[in-house]
Design a protein that fits this description.
Layout (H helix, E strand, L loop, with lengths): L8 H7 L3 H9 L3 H8 L5 H13 L3 E6 L7 H19 L13 E5 L12 H19 L2 E4 L7 H12 L6 E5 L5 H8 L5 E5 L14 H17 L3 E5 L3 H13 L8 E5 L4 H9 L4 E7 L4 H10 L1 H12 L2
Bound molecules: dihydroflavine-adenine dinucleotide (FDA).
GO molecular function: nucleotide binding; proline dehydrogenase activity
Enzyme class: oxidoreductase
InterPro entries: FAD-linked_oxidoreductase-like, PRODH_bac_arc, Proline_DH_dom, Proline_oxidase
Length: 320
């Protein structure tokens, strides 16, 4: 039998969709103290405080206002308004003025938070909202990267990003190495000026579209990494896996890239010491900083990635 990336992962991601599980977890008294390990806090100012500390330690940031699967237009509009306020505050930081080179400030956004899943005109609504967000980010001196969600959204998301890049060529996107299609997408999207964040992928996907075993996902990641490094864009290597981190440096060197021609990315609260070590060694490191009240989906994906996180979580609930 092939080794799964994490045998519990599909079960955790499936259970996470149950309203009863959601209600039990969000109400459990011990949850909050563990959630704060992975998110900067519920408010914008919490995110800005976390970002300040990371920037002062030589790291770059990508701030994400948590939200996904929005099914009502009012909520999608509220998400855009929150991003606008965030961008206005980021524009005041000295790090916002780094035109021409790698921008130290970025925001990450899920198109499903901007309305992509709305029953009528979801694509058009998300496109329009993302357009407003990119315009505000351009003015603020901040980059934007569009997160990757489950595979049913990939075509729509990539087509929206392609459309927006005509006006905002710096707009980044995420590709997930567990999808069978991704090596091809890397080839198609590694042209001049493109910014691609390569991650393994965090959703529960069927075998028909995604590799299931850890070995296959890792092999795909390494192939995709080579394509991106050999391409003409700016690769963003989003992984905590030491194998991928080392491969990035080797593959960059092989392609004649310097430390400024790609970046490492890791999540807030995960392998903090390694993030600092890479940055101190001269690598560009960006930390994804999530904040907001809608942390449930994000938190459950982090638990599903690593059985130790789940065990830690359950034990802390049991000992209360
Ligand atoms: P892997 O899961 O193999 O982990 C390697 C090692 O990293 C572990 O042994 C452990 O030490 C540490 N580690 C990893 N996850 C941990 C955790 N949760 N808690 C504690 N330690 C952990 N996915 C997606 O589908 N769409 C997206 O848009 C993004 N965006 C994104 C941005 C950034 C900056 C990162 C780093 C990741 C994403 N992801 C994502 C998530 C990604 O797809 C993937 O699920 C996680 O990064 C875990 O995979 P790794 O490559 O880190 O390796």
């Amino acid at each position: 039998p092939r080794a799964l990336a994490n045998p519990l992962r599909p079960a955790i991601l499936a259970a996470a969709r149950s309203p009863r599980v959601k209600s039990a977890i969000t109400r459990a008294p011990g949850t909050r103290s563990i959630v704060t390990r992975f998110i900067a806090g519920e408010t914008r100012s919490d995110a800005l405080v976390a970002a300040r500390t990371l920037l002062d330690s030589g790291r770059m940031v990508s701030i994400d206002h948590l939200g996904e699967d929005t099914t009502d237009l009012t909520q999608a509009r509220a998400a855009v308004a929150e991003y606008r306020s965030l961008l206005a505050e980021l524009a005041r930081l000295p790090e916002a003025r780094t035109a021409g080179e790698t921008r130290r400030l970025e925001v990450s956004v899920k198109l499903s938070a901007l309305g992509q899943a709305l029953p009528s005109d979801g694509r058009a609504v998300a496109l329009e909202h993302a357009h407003h967000l990119c315009a505000a980010a351009q003015e603020a001196g901040v980059w934007v990267t569009v997160d990757a969600e489950d595979h049913t959204t990939t075509d729509s998301t990539l087509s929206i990003v392609t459309e927006l890049r005509a006006d905002y060529p710096w707009l980044g996107t995420v590709l997930q190495a567990y999808l069978r299609r991704t090596e091809g997408d890397c080839r198609d999207l590694s042209g001049p000026g493109s910014r691609i964040r390569l991650c393994k992928g965090a959703y529960r996907e069927p075998e028909s579209v995604a590799y299931q075993s850890r070995a296959e996902v890792d092999a795909s990641y390494l192939r995709c990494l080579t394509v991106l490094m050999d391409g003409q864009g700016y690769p963003m290597v989003a992984s905590h896996d030491p194998v991928m981190v080392d491969a990035a440096a080797a593959s960059a060197a092989g392609a004649g890239r310097g430390a400024g021609d790609y970046e490492h990315q890791m999540l807030y609260g995960i392998r903090d010491v390694e993030q600092a070590r890479l940055a101190a060694g001269g690598a560009q490191v960006r930390v994804y900083v999530p904040y907001g009240g809608q942390w449930y989906g994000y938190f459950m994906r982090r638990l599903a990635e690593r059985p130790a996180n789940l065990t830690f979580f359950l034990r802390s609930l049991a000992t209360r």
